[in-house]
Inverse folding.
């Protein structure tokens, strides 16, 4: 799997989890202390996150990190 494909699949998982929780990108960005543009870039697959930030994101979305890193079902 290429890096860009991986980032897009990860971004799709983030977006699905965010929508499940009825959060806007702006609301999620406020919880995480990042810009709304950063969240948009993640969801579009243009932003690579560190493992620590992925853990923060999972916590902000009240989900486990495995849900964000699951790529086989997409």
């Amino acid at each position: 799997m290429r890096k860009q494909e991986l980032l897009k699949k990860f971004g799709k998982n983030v977006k699905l989890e965010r929508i499940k929780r009825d959060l806007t990108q702006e609301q999620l960005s406020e919880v995480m202390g990042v810009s709304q543009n950063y969240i948009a870039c993640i969801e579009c697959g243009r932003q690579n996150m560190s493992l620590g930030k992925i853990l923060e994101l999972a916590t902000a979305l009240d989900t486990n990190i495995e849900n964000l890193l699951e790529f086989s079902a997409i």
